[in-house]
Amino acid sequence: MLDAADLPDDIAALKAMLIAAQAREVRKDERIERLENLVAAFKQAAFGRKSEKADPEQFDLALEDLETAIAAVHAEDEADSPQGKPQPKPRVANRGSLPAHLPRIEEIIEPESRICACGGGLHCIGEDVSERLDIIPAQFRVIVTRRPKYACRACTDGVSQAPAPARLIQAGLPTEATIAHVLVSKYADHLPLYRQAQIMGRQGIDLDRSTLSDWVGRAAFELRPVFDALIADLKRSTKLFMDETRAPVLDPGSRKTKTGYFWALARDDRPWGGGAPPGVAFTYAPGRGGLHAERILQGFTGILQVDGYAGYNRLIAPDRVGTDIRLAYCWAHARRKLVEITRTGSAPIAEEGVRRIGELYRIEAELRRLPAEARLAGRQERSAALITDMRTWLTHHRARVAGKSPLGEALAYIAKYWDGLCIFLIDGRIEIDNNTVERTIRPIALSRKNALFAGHDAGAENWAVIASLIETCKLNAVDPFAYLTTTLTSIVNGHKQSRIDELMPWRCI
């Protein structure tokens, strides 16, 4: 409750304060609603009538994603609170235990000066000591921070002590390196948090999975601006790749999963020597409709290379209002349909189609890494004639093959997307296929095979934030652990939003 003495006398300042307070209340109500939905899903997962029938590992994954999502909302709430406003109650934290056998690395943070304002020397009268759990690969250790307190013998002007260093988890145990290790283990190495807790337990470090979930949720919240900057940087490009893949998400309280989708937006200009660094950003959506692609691509203008999924047609609809997008299609998908036919028996026409597309790929292999102008010239000289001849071949056989047969459908697919398949002949920056983005999306398929992908929609959104940064690190040959450690440390120490581009993964090369 504000005291009248704290309110400004200026009417304009009072209006601004009132508007800011109302905006905070709206955001607070939205967060309360999100938390209520998460708690309801949590209770259903924990106490629902069918929950006992679920696989134990899937149940644990659901809980950790829900706890991570709740922690991210709490972090958002704390960040939105006015500075200096006391929290209504301290955050409940599982402090764990730091075994005595772990090595201690002590650092002493001294005040800037040990000379009192009166001119006398300060002497140590005590110190504050804190311990945080740190980690290096395959070894845990404890960082002991000592902050001596000094007072003057000649006067009583107070105590001098260095300020405590900033932390991502206030009053928490982990260093930023520890949190980075947990993130990489979960999102790059597919090691769920409850298994990580078990690994720590073998070294005598007693931490609940819920504690690790809290760390991950708060890290996801702090990394969100970097993720947003990554997407914005990608959409400033004039040529991108896009693909989507299923993301099974647990429907709390039942044995069933619902199907969400991850949309991958990728850039890789290395095949033609472009100057923009490679990157990929994943966006979770509850469905596969083209409206999701349109929302993700808002503000992008240029060439978008995709597969033949019909949802992308929404981006080039005649009545669409928005920026200009041109679709380039994928010869690998066209070839794949013909290859499937050859595997069922003798198929001379399909085999001929595979051979013709193979000739285009052989030319592309020779042109790879050449400048865009040289690639375009090589394609015009060597590939254009093959494409012209293939068009004649395609028209000839489509007139003679039953349209509803597997071969007829494969040829119809090529004919339907012909213009987009041939666009690589007029722009040396365009690839012949969409394999670039398919490679970046493979970690999702790996997660899908190993275990349930996500325990909640909000958990999938946090996955998108962290996995995007990790996979972009990989594309740029940057160690994800080193990058996340450095980035989280920079954020904790007040890295300015106006310089967020400095935290892009490729800036760490």
| Major beta-sheet overview | 5 strands, mixed
Fraction in helix: 40-55%
Radius of gyration: 29 Å
- Topology order in helix (H) and strand (E) letters: HHEEEEHHHEEEHEEHHHHHHHHH
Order of the strands making up the biggest sheet: 7-6-5-8-9
Which descriptor suits the 3D outline?
elongated
Strand content: 5-15%
Structural class label: alpha/beta
Q: Count of DSSP helices?
A: 15
Mean pLDDT: 86
Which residues sit in consecutive blocks of at least 5 with pLDDT less than 50?
50-55
Protein name: IS66 family transposase
Domain Transposase IS66 C-terminal: 468-506
InterPro entries: IS66_C (IPR039552), Transposase-related (IPR052344), Transposase_IS66_central (IPR004291), Transposase_TnpC_homeodom (IPR024463), Znf_dom_IS66 (IPR024474)
Organism: Rhizobium anhuiense
Short description:
This protein is an alpha/beta fold and 509 residues long. It contains 15 helices and nine strands. It is 47% helix and 15% strand.
